[in-house]
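Feature request, filed as a ticket because there's no other form

It would be nice if the structure record came with a short human-readable summary line next to the tokens. Right now we just get the raw output. Example of a typical job, pasted below so the devs can see what we mean:
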Amino acid sequence: MKNIAALALISSIALVSCKKETATVTKVDPKTGKTITVEVPADSVAKVAENPAIRDSAGIITQTFKLEKGKTYPLTTYQRDVKTMTDPQGKSITATSESTDEMNFTVNDIKGNVYDMTLNLVAKRSSQSAQGKTIVVDTKLPIPKEDDLKMIWNINRALTGNKLTMKMDTKGNVISITGFDAVYTKISNAIGTLIKDANEKASVIASLKETFNEKVLKDQFNKNLTIIPKKGAKIGEKWTTTENADASGAIKVTSNYVLKSLGNGAAEITVTGGIPKKTEKKTQGPITHSLSSELAQNGTIKFDQSTGWITNQNINVVTTQIETISDGKQSQSMKSVSKSSVMVNPSAK
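Raw output as currently delivered:
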């Protein structure tokens, strides 16, 4: 009887140990579009801080940041463009370009609700491939042999390896970015041996300052680091932003965001939208020239629930442009299709 009792006890322990704990995850049902709560194995859910940066309060999801002093957070951006041009005879030419900007942020100090951070500009890489030939400019590789690439490499090499000081509050508002003058000086010295003419040298630096300054970086980080509206959003809720696609502001890109889910340690947001098809026509005598263009985007963005930091972005963008010339009897068209992948922290899963 004692053996039977012992066996019964062992069986009971085995049953208890085999029972898996579960956790609940909030998501949108893809069939109905309604918000549902499902149970999943607890060991499949990433550990989340008791008071996470991205949290649910009465069904409203808000995003803040909870970064740790001394830790470094990555923000590597990568873009790949494949452009195909087709002439009136149907002959196509395809060119591929890639660019990578590797940077990260180290939290030096936290004062109140403001992070004192160092922005580390780690590396830059670009490449172009067409008709079987590829050229690469990579700051992690030696200077290219081609004269026309040496200038780009020198500027990029001088641009990387630098540190800027950034202040950002816990809501993701970038307060300031400083340290640009030292970078400009470093780049000016680097191109000094390649450009002898003072005016040409000044023009290169002026052009750089237009694309690499506090305002440009602030705009970039504000777009990349904080997506959920300040007022918060519900699971399945949609919100829309627009930005200028050209200097005049006549053409705008629309981005539609939906908070798809919050769970498994991450907040996932889907992105759609673009630029609706637009056609412009000009007629001169019997000749009509028309140009139609459109842009469509879709993808996902993921944030770490505990820290609020972006872990991954993968957005696909397709741009189509068709140029047609017609005399009323016959027409010829040139078509250009560009397929782009725009990623943040591409190595993250």
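Something like this underneath would help us a lot:
The chain has two domains: 53-64+226-348, 67-169+174-225.
The two ends are 55 Å apart (CA to CA).
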